[in-house]
Amino acid sequence: MSLQAITVPPAHHPPKGLIILLHGWGANCEDLPPLAKFMDLADYQLVFPDAPFPHPYNPVGKMWYAFPESYSFLGTPEFGDRPDLSTSRQELLDFIVDQAKQAGVSLSQTILGGFSQGGAMTLDVGLRLPVAGLMILSGYLHAPLQPQQPNLAPILIIHGRQDAVVPLHSAHQVRDSLQALGAPLHYQEYDMGHEIQPVVLSQIQTFVKEILTSS
User: 150: pLDDT confidence band, cut at 50, 70 and 90?
Assistant: First the structure.
């Protein structure tokens, strides 16, 4: 299995860095690319992969893994061993390494981010690779973080106070878990729901430029 993706190439080669953004549950690789034109990131290569599994209710949707009944968005240890999650994890790890090679950049010039379930996958996979930074947008932990996670790159966490899908306390769990590991965090809450508003795009743009300019 190989992940399909939409790539927005840089205005000039080589790119200053690679940005990989993961969609949420039920969306697909076409969900996030329209946001690229609202950010001043033309010097970077942006990649938007499809999750590997079909969505059970949306015929064009994808998912990184299925949700059990009454899912709480608070990580449990056994959840990390789910077969569908394990498959997505390995596919995504291989994909990120391959995309960096194709773009001609190192993992230290790569930022991984994701929305909702894509944010949970970002936490799961991004802490296993020496990437430059992580962006968690309306995300959560699907399994507790492990103390031996090798990479503690800068992490941007943004969540809506009125999020009716992934509750705010899930973002607090992410924040507190990462702080306990000593990760450098930029945590921000906004008066919004489960969405990506223009102010979030501004935060993403600033974070990318700060991290990849200084790396």
Answer: low
